[in-house]
Amino acid sequence: MQIQMYTLAVLSASVSFSNAQVNATAPLRKLNEQKNIANGQPKLIRNHFSNQYQRAADNVHCGLQDKTGNLWFGTTGDGVYRFDGKSFINFTMNDGLDTNQILSILEDKVGNIWFGSRNGVCRYDGKDITKIPITVTSGSSSYNSISIGNNASIKNSVWSMMQDRIGNIWFGTDEGLYCFDGKTFSLFLDNPAIINKSGLTLKSIQCMLEDRNGNIWFGSGPMALEGICFYDGKTLTNYEPKNQQWIRKIVESKNGNILFSMRQEGICYYNPSADQASGKTFNSFPTPAKLFNGSLTTILEDKEGNIWIASDYAKHSGDSLGGAWRSDLSPDNLYETTFTKITSKEVFFMLEDKDNNIWLGTRGTGLYRYTGKTLTNFSE
C-alpha cells in the first residue's frame, strides 16, 4: 500500500518567517439546513465514490469532537461526515472540498474546522467550505527549490495539523512544514535562526504535538524517515528509538510522559522529569507481544488514564494482528499491565467523546463506537 507523507507547517513566538498573503478561493456552493435535513442518515453511508479496489483501502482516517459536541470524521474516499448524535451529514467536493480524500481535521480556537486533504487545505466557518491555498513568497532559502511558491494550482497533501498556544496553525505537507499566523503562510525551515545540525527536512511528518512546556514534537513518516524530531524553540534534534524512523502518533499523558507509536516496535515514551543533561532517554511501554512486528497506527489515553493501542494489520501467519487494545492501568504504573482486545478489525483512528465512548475508524471506511461494554457498527 503506497503511503504518501507529509510535513507540517509551523511557527513559534520566537521564530520569524517569510511572508505570504492568503487568497481564499470562493466556496463552491453554500451549505444550508435544507442539505442537512435531506442528507441526514442514522449511519455513515460509505463508498459513494470508490471502486471495488479502492473500497478495501479507504478508511476513516481522522476526526474530532467540536466545541458544540458534533463529531467529525474524515475519510480517504468519501469526504467528511458530521454526526450530531442522531444523524450523519456527508460533505464532499460538491460542497466545496478540494477532494474527497481527507487526511487530517482541526478545530481552531474560534471554532473553524480545517480539513487537510491530498490536494491541500479547506476551512469550514459554520456556513461555507473555502479552499485555502498554501502559498509563500519566494526568498533566498534553499527550500525555495521545493516550495510550491505562488502557484496555488499545485496539489500538496496535508497529513497533519496543529494549533499552538499562541494561535499559529502548523501544517505537515508533502512540500514541508508550514505555519499560518492568521494572514500568511511560511515555511518553517526558511528561518535561518533555527539550528538544524542534522539537516532534517521535516518533509514527512505524520503527527505533531506541543507539550505542556511549549516544546514541539514531530513524528516522521516513510517519505523522510527521520524518526522523532524535537524543537525547543531554537534547535531541531532527531531521535530514533530502537532504530525506528516511522512514528505514527504522539500523545502527552496526564503524568507528563510523551508516548510515541512506532510502526513496527510498539510504543516508547519519554519522561521529562527524568531527563538527563547527556540526552533524552526513550523507554519501552508494554505492548501485546504480537504487535511488536505488526503495524501500529495510533494510541490514545482515555479520561481514566488507560492507554489504547491500535493496529491496521488484519492477518499475519493466520493470526489476527489488527485491532484495538486497552491497557487497564494508570500510566504511572507502566510495567505491570494487562491488555483487553476490543476488536480485531484494522483500526486507523481512535477518538474519545465527551460521554467517554471510544470511536474507532477502520479500513473499509468502517466506524464503530465502544461504550465500555458493547461495540456498535455505525457504518453501512
Describe this structure as you would to a colleague.
The chain has 380 residues and is mostly beta strands. The protein is 3% helix and 36% strand. Mean pLDDT is 82; it is low at 1-21 and 139-153.
Topology record:
Layout: H1 33-39, H2 52-55, E1 60-65, E2 71-75, E3 80-83, E4 88-91, E5 102-107, E6 113-117, E7 121-124, E8 129-132, E9 158-163, E10 169-173, E11 176-180, E12 185-187, E13 205-210, E14 216-220, E15 228-231, E16 236-239, E17 247-252, E18 258-262, E19 266-270, E20 282-285, E21 296-301, E22 307-311, E23 323-327, E24 339-343, E25 347-352, E26 358-362, E27 366-370, E28 375-377
Antiparallel strand pairs: 1-2, 2-3, 3-4, 5-6, 6-7, 7-8, 9-10, 10-11, 11-12, 13-14, 14-15, 15-16, 17-18, 18-19, 19-20, 21-22, 22-23, 23-24, 25-26, 26-27, 27-28
